[in-house]
């Protein structure tokens, strides 16, 4: 009975093997429209615990605009029209028959840390390094996996980032994309085993 | 960029997910988890700006996307049903204007997907995908056909209970949910590891209820499926704003 006890969360289930029937959109990978100045491609391959590509996964991305702003009423600085025309903040890409995914976006800006706790004084200039939140969906995943993409050009900010600092040093690299060209970054995702990507509990 | 210290605005985080809500990622009865569920413990990500915001999508919805029975050449085969309900958060607040996407097998239990090759008939008038926005009260409604059960190779004589896949955004990254809706009294529940991966006491929330009042006479049966997304943490006290 789904209505008896309001407040009881609906459980998660796997997307199964046929998510392609409902989820991908033609413009899903376009966080920004084609031809946007400064656009970059971020993508990679999803691997399973045997090192095989995962051909039936879907990746979603969510990020701030280059000024570090969100067009969302719950941003305490106020919702703001994105600095880049056509910027959606959100990307969605299914993996192809070689397990590859990619989105076209612009690099996010740094974010001030608004602590989630009700009391937080000072340190108003502490910033989160630029990052992109990621959800991974696939057959065999009973809940989405969450991770974050950081960028290799921000060594200083990355070193000061509160989340990255909380990750064991030897695994931090799984959260940092690799620059393959000025406008192309690779972010592979390893679901399980050797080199397993750091996944996040939110 | 040293600035005078000022009170930093605070973000109410989303409440933690109670124990016993979701399936464990590693669930051997569902074989596909074996190579895909991470083995390491996840790292805690406190809720900050990126997590308490999220895409407020209003597209890509076209007229008719809420009616899966409208085929290219005619009406889809099968038992016509209305699937409807309310999307709310765990505080009981409705979630308006949020995208709900569904996908499902046809009446014979076959997906219109190139990988699904079990010998059940395809329906040229049923592709099985739909999307709709909740209204100002958080309500949504689809017209579709009742999906069939289908076999899968997970274990000997394995059959998935009839279900509809659901995907929801809510208003924040933390609220994102993908789930499956089931039908009342399905005899296949007991042998299905995906349904049973969710702890007892929570899995029942995925079963829709038959709603005679919502049934449209001479037209379609109706099933109600209400969905609850994570809500906000209660703020312990009010804080004066700078
Ligand atoms: Fe299914």
UniProtKB/TrEMBL annotation, chain A:
NCBIfam families: protocat_alph
Protein's organism: Pseudonocardia ammonioxydans
Coiled coil regions in record: none
PANTHER family with a match to the protein in the record: DIOXYGENASE, PUTATIVE (AFU_ORTHOLOGUE AFUA_2G02910)-RELATED, PROTOCATECHUATE 3,4-DIOXYGENASE ALPHA CHAIN
Family annotation (CDD domains): 3_4-PCD_alpha
Taxonomy, superkingdom: Bacteria
Any Pfam family hit: Dioxygenase_C
Amino acid composition bias (Basic and acidic residues), ranges on this chain: 67-78
Disordered: region residues: 67-86
Family note: Belongs to the intradiol ring-cleavage dioxygenase family.
SUPFAM superfamilies: Aromatic compound dioxygenase
Name recorded for this polypeptide: Protocatechuate 3,4-dioxygenase alpha subunit
UniProt keyword terms in alphabetical order: Dioxygenase, Oxidoreductase
GO molecular function: ferric iron binding; protocatechuate 3,4-dioxygenase activity
Keyword Chloroplast: no
Ranges where the Intradiol ring-cleavage dioxygenases domain occurs: 39-193
TrEMBL record, chain B:
Pfam families assigned: Dioxygenase_C, PCDO_beta_N
Family: Belongs to the intradiol ring-cleavage dioxygenase family.
Gene3D superfamilies: Aromatic compound dioxygenase
Ranges of residues in domain Intradiol ring-cleavage dioxygenases: 83-111
InterPro entries (UniProt xref): Intradiol_dOase_C (IPR000627), Intradiol_dOase_core (IPR015889), Intradiol_RC_Dioxygenase (IPR050770), PCDO_beta_N (IPR024756), Protocat_dOase_b (IPR012785)
Region described as Disordered: 1-22
Natural source organism: Pseudonocardia ammonioxydans
GO biological process terms, semicolon-separated: 3,4-dihydroxybenzoate catabolic process
Gene Ontology MF term list: ferric iron binding; protocatechuate 3,4-dioxygenase activity
Protein name as catalogued: Protocatechuate 3,4-dioxygenase, beta subunit
Entry keyword Oxidoreductase: yes
Keywords: Dioxygenase, Oxidoreductase
